[in-house]
Write a structure and sequence with these properties.
15 helices; globular; 8-stranded parallel β-barrel; about 450 residues; about 40% helix; binds beta-D-glucopyranose; alpha/beta
Length: about 450
């Protein structure tokens, strides 16, 4: 077998989760509520009114979950810190019990030889800060840096990779423009300010890290290639807008200190004139970029879909996931190469990749067969390897998610885990996809070349 079927030495093999989606016990041991606690407890906001009150009970079961990561042979775990667990009011007094949880988790990972990869913000702003305007208040950038400093001081000696924000596009688009995610605002004029303050917060946190941290800090963006549904000029222009809105909106200011010109076209009068000094703050050198990749967007011009005037068109011959996303593995290599063109040799990580499918129940022999997810991973891991062959400096890959968990407004109705969770008993059962992934990890990628196995 040739060398090119293998991932490089030292490649990080991981799985990812986020605090509100897995921890449960949101108010335990002195923690303060987050906007997700508040949103999920507001009638009508989530599927069946489901909340993260229990989720995967990871707050109490973290040690056995770490043992599970170890059994799967993984070398990294990406988790996020709940800001209001360690600063219950978002700023001011530190809650030592909250901090102690993340120290225990980090130490358990290190004891198993697993690298902790920490995200500082995965959508769960302290509710007390939302009361002060949340991401709309320009002071949020300083609040975030103060919080980040607390985390760096407590864990910095043990955590080699830090991410400031997870998917700022989703925070602004889902939380402030379309209102489907916390805090549930629907405002064209708020969204650009929220994106800008998120990016300013990223900048201040990177500066804080440079003052005291010695390892690596970066940002996690959700990126997807936008392809025109036809060669008609209107569809091509819509595709350019969609790409600017989701992808370049965040990457360009971070890498080059400027927003794409299309944003003024999309937001019209609601697009502010941001000060140059802010853009200099946003453009901090980063050590890596995390790419969350799920799907692509085949884009059609649509006057009614505001503000973008573009919609994603369904592809009749493609497989779709339960969240309505087209399965499109070549988009992962395309995305990584696209980033390489802009960011050069900057180290990249696939910080999330995965799919929700309606899994069959656990069988009598205790197995959960999820062949569609196995194929999803096979295709995307091959695409990751292809990107490496084509010169992308890819340093690691994280499956989303380790566990079936709380899928935000969808509640528990969508399962993304490679490990099945029975939410009645909290029993964990690695699915066929976990076994497949473990084989890929164990063989350094060689298992990807094996012919598709017959179902067990
Ligand atoms: C988010 C996760 C989410 C996943 C699947 C990503 O956008 O970072 O929190 O569960 O997608 O929807």
């Amino acid at each position: 077998m040739s060398e090119t079927t293998r991932f490089p030495e030292g490649f990080l093999w991981g799985a990812a989760t986020s605090a509100y989606q897995v921890e449960g016990s949101p108010l335990a041991d002195g923690a303060g509520p987050s906007i997700w606690h508040r949103f999920s407890h507001t009638p009508g906001r989530t599927h069946n009114g489901e909340t993260g009150d229990v989720a995967c009970d990871h707050y109490r079961r973290y040690a056995s979950d770490v043992a599970l990561l170890h059994e799967l042979g993984l070398s990294a775990y990406r988790f996020s810190i709940s800001w209001s667990r360690i600063l219950p009011a978002g700023r001011g007094a530190v809650n030592p019990h909250g901090l102690a949880f993340y120290e225990r988790l980090t130490d358990a990972l290190l004891a198993h030889g697993i690298q902790p990869v920490v995200t500082l913000y995965h959508w769960d702003l302290p509710a007390a800060l939302d009361d002060l305007g949340g991401w709309l208040n320009p002071d949020v950038a300083d609040w975030f840096a103060d919080y980040a400093r607390v985390a760096f001081r407590a864990l910095g000696d043990r955590v080699p990779l830090w991410a400031t924000l997870n998917e700022p596009w989703v925070v602004a688009d889902g939380g402030y423009l379309h209102g489907l995610l916390a805090p549930g605002h629907k405002s064209l004029s708020e969204a650009p300010h929220v994106s800008h303050n998120l990016l300013r917060a990223h900048g201040t946190a990177v500066q804080a890290y440079r003052a005291e941290g010695k390892r690596q800090i970066g940002l996690v963006l959700n990126l997807e290639p936008k392809h025109p549904a036809s060669s008609a000029p209107a569809d091509v222009a819509a595709t350019r807008r969609a790409d600017a809105y989701m992808n370049r909106h965040y990457l360009e200011p971070v890498l080059s200190g400027a927003y794409p010109g299309e944003l003024a076209e999309i937001f019209g009068d609601a697009w502010p004139d941001f000060p140059e000094a802010d853009l200099r703050l946003i453009r901090q050198p980063i050590d890596f970029l995390g790419v969350n990749y799920y799907t692509r967007g085949v884009t059609r011009h649509d006057e009614t879909a505001l503000p973008l005037r573009a919609t994603t068109e369904r592809q009749p011959r493609s497989v779709y996931t339960e969240t309505g996303w087209e399965v499109y593995p070549p988009g992962l290599s395309e995305t990584l190469l696209w980033v390489r063109q802009r960011a050069g040799d900057l180290p990249l990580y696939v910080t999330e990749n995965g799919a929700a499918f309606p899994d069959p129940p656990r069988s009598l022999n205790g197995r959960v067969e999820d062949p569609l997810r196995v194929e999803y991973y096979r295709g995307h891991l091959r695409a990751a390897l292809d990107a490496i062959r084509r010169g992308v400096n890819l340093r690691g890959y994280f499956a989303w998610s380790l566990l079936d968990n709380y899928e935000w407004s969808y509640g528990y109705s969508k399962r993304f885990g490679i490990v099945h969770v029975d939410f009645e008993t909290q029993r964990r059962t690695p699915k066929a996809s976990a076994r497949f992934y473990a084989d890929v990890v164990r063989t350094g990628g060689a298992a990807l070349s094996a012919p598709t196995a017959a179902p067990a």
